[in-house]
Amino acid sequence: NGDVGFRVFKLDTSNIRPWEATAETLSEQIDAYVSPILEGRNEEDLLTELMLKRGIDLSVNIETRQFDGLTVSCVDGGKLFTCFAKQIPASSVEELTKGIIDWYKSLKAGKDTVCYFLDDAFENNVAKTNLCAILEQHGLTNLHSL
Questions:
Q1: What is the DSSP letter of 11?
Q2: Which of 40, 98, 109, 138 is exposed most, by the fewest CB atoms within 10 A?
Q3: CA distance 146 to 142
């Protein structure tokens, strides 16, 4: 069906700010680490880094869907789900989790599925706790936040 193109990748530093605190710089490091993602990095940068770190081939299929305005990516038929939205309001948690769960179940992905979110994106700890509890109730237990 013709040329589908190709992607070019360039080796770069990590998208995640390294933790380099000493006794003298601890306070500054804590303030800087409120958001561990380096300035100027986008969702695709984070997803590519996670795929490489998890040993997932960069040529696998990546699908995206929107749930309550939040973009969720699904990698390689459900091996990895990510939502790197800058803000996840408490009011969006129910629709977001329902969307991820329905998608996960439709793929029959297995128990090794991993989900990633940005820790500082959650409106509050209750929103994060609710999201984790709902996903865990439906078999998604390998949850991580950056």
A1: -
A2: 40
A3: 13
pLDDT, tens digit (0-9, with 9 covering 90-100), for 80-119: 999 999 999 999 999 999 999 999 999 988 788 999 999 8
Q: Are 100 and 135 in contact (CB under 8 A)?
A: yes
The answer to pTM > 0.90 is no
Can you list the positions of beta strands (E) in 55-137? 62-67, 70-75, 80-83, 114-117
Contact 118, 85 (CB under 8 A): yes
Which whole-number Å values give the CA distances from 83 to 2, 4, 47, 69, 88, in the listed order? 32, 26, 9, 11, 9
